[in-house]
Amino acid sequence: MIDPDREVRLGLLLISPERFSAIGEGTARGSYRERKEREALSMLKDASALGHVTYSGIVWNREDILRSIDVFVRDRVDYVLAVFLSWAEDFAWIRFLRDMPPCPVLFCHRMRDMIHLKDTHDDDEFTEYLCCGGLVGTLEASGSVQRFHRPMLETFTGTWNAILDRARDFGLAARARALLQESTFGLLGCMNEVMWSTYVDIYSLFQHVGPEMRFLSVAELESAVESVSIGDAEQTVTRLSGQYEVLPNVDTEKFIASVRASIAMERLAEERGLDVLVLNDIDTVLFSRIGLRPGFWPTSPSVRTLIVPEGDIGSGVACMILKLLTGQHVNYIEPFHVDLPNECFAAGHAGPNDYTDPRGICRISSDVRFARTQWKYAGAPFAWYVFPSGEKTMLHCSQRGESFHLVMGQVEALPTKPFLATYSHSLFRPVGKNCRDFFDALIRCGVTQHYGITDGDHRQRVRDLSGMLGLPLEEV
Q1: Which of 145, 241, 312, 387 could potentially form a cystine with 426 if both were Cys, beta carbons 3.0 to 4.6 Å apart?
Q2: Residue 395 has pLDDT above 80, yes or no
Q3: Counting beta carbons within 10 angstroms of the beta carbon of residue 135, is it exposed (0 to 12), middle (13 to 18) or buried (19 or more)?
Q4: Helix then strand then coil, % of the chain, to nearest 5
């Protein structure tokens, strides 16, 4: 399993001209080399706040760029932050563009907050003038960027603080790309045979997004349930009952059965090393063998696997992307209906949904949708959750042609009292447009009904990641 909390791995590439190094020797502020070494150390210290930095010193010559490439590859950096400290010969830069293995690169021009230059006839002032010439080097280097057409390279111009802010988003996207390539997904049961638009090509998933796929059977889950002791399940039931309101429609035996199946599902995912488990929780084989759909994920803070319902692998990608980019709670929704008088829409989903953010409302309720079925634990309870209010990034992923595409929007979850039985839910309002235009745009994009949501505006990170993965992104 991947470590979603690991630091971003940043390669810092600072380029300067060796032919300037001795200029200014003996002046008040020292030689060009001395000034740039001080500047580089300051930049290194600031960049360390972004994650683990790999840095082998300023690149002055061919040997320096080769050494930098070697240490970047050795440390498996997620991305490289490249800055020209002033004008510099472009041979080092074009060797980097040619020889550095595929890797996201953020190439920036650092604008100084202010420049104080006097009469540059003075050696000290002239040296400072040369030190301020990063724009010259960046402009020259930009031509090589276009000639090499290197993938995953983005440019940015701003002050150093602005560059650090931009690098933070870019770095989190680069880390997400690397972690997706190391991750393992699992499909429990099968794809959902009543939702063909959610079908994906597993080979294409590996090729274009990154995860390997494992296939789990309901028989494996059945064995896992048998291995969970009643005592373990009862202990979790006691904890949940003390933490959340249990509605009168909850049957104690079915409560224990639901928790037991949930623990079994999580343990099975852990044993198989799954970072994401896609559960087909409306599969009749699941109901006939287990007697219910597991209703409590996660059952403890130690659970590491992200779980999504209805056999939709694309939605698992969307939720995992949001999780990796933010480290926050991620919820799973499908829009139900539009409330035109109040210009909002109801959305949510049955089945596994993270209910552990204390800002939301969680009650334990019978799964009334299946209460009148013939299954052994018909109506077994689940964590009935109302999502916390506030602005959310909403992300969709499904297959289009040979690859995948992403669709993204911003919505606001409104303060909502629980009202949709069986579904974790809330009322939502699109940010910056009305519901008609929002859903018209989604339908024109060509999507499915499933979306991941998380707190805040993370659109720039999603844009960066989509570019790194080469996945088309549409914004609504």
Answers
A1: 387
A2: yes
A3: middle
A4: 40, 25, 35
Placement of tokens 């997004």 in the chain: 209
Whether residue 425 sits in one domain with residue 411 = yes
171 and 220 share a domain?
A: no
286 burial level (CB within 10 Å; 0-12, 13-18, 19+): buried
Nearest to 364 by CA among 308, 267, 299: 299
Contact residues for 438 (Cβ-Cβ < 8 A; gap 6+): 409, 430, 476
Report residue 252's pLDDT band, with 50, 70 and 90 as the boundaries. very high
Which tokens is 436 given?
Answer: 């008609």
Lookup result for tokens 């999504």: 308
Last residue of a domain, one of 136, 151, 180: 180
Q: Rounded CA gap, 197 and 217, in Å?
A: 22
CA–CA distance, 261 with 106 (Å, rounded to integer): 46
The residue written with tokens 């639901």 in the block is 258
CA distances from 338 to 33, 335, 342, 369, 428 (A): 64, 8, 9, 22, 9
- pLDDT tens sequence across 184-230: 999 999 999 889 999 999 999 999 999 999 999 999 999 999 999 99
Could you tell me the pTM of the whole model? Answer: 0.95
* 164 and 302 both lie in a single domain: no
362 confidence band (pLDDT: 50, 70, 90): very high
User: Is the same domain home to 280 and 176?
Assistant: no
Position 96 scores a pLDDT of 97
Range of the domain at 27: 9-180
Paired sense of beta strands 473-475 and 403-414, if any: parallel
CATH of residue 369? 3.20.14
